[in-house]
């Protein structure tokens, strides 16, 4: 003898109690999920295309050619200054 499965008779009878607000109404409300989601999408970092990245590199190279040509850092500048000072002292001591 087979068993009879229970039927969910209430599924089709569900009617929403209140009318749901429209998307425009939800976007007006600052604390609604939709408005917070929209704000987050606007704030989200936008990735640049390959073309834009290459263009920025070219503009950076054109605007600062001196920076890329010079080598060394602060330590190298200090060493150069000390060498120049020592060379100057040798010239004055020789004379």
UniProtKB/TrEMBL annotation:
UniProt region (Disordered), positions on chain: 39-95
Compositionally skewed regions (Basic and acidic residues) per UniProt: 49-59
Protein name: Uncharacterized protein
Native organism: Neptunomonas concharum
Biased composition (Basic residues): 39-48
Domain of life: Bacteria
């Amino acid at each position: 003898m087979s068993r009879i499965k229970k039927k969910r008779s209430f599924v089709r009878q569900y009617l929403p109690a209140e009318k749901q607000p429209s998307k425009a109404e939800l976007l007006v409300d600052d604390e609604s999920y939709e408005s917070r989601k929209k704000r987050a999408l606007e704030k989200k970092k936008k990735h640049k295309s390959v073309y834009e990245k290459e263009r920025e590199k070219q503009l950076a190279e054109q605007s600062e050619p001196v920076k890329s040509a010079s080598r060394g850092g602060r330590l190298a500048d200090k060493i150069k200054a000390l060498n120049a000072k020592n060379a100057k002292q040798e010239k004055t001591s020789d004379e």
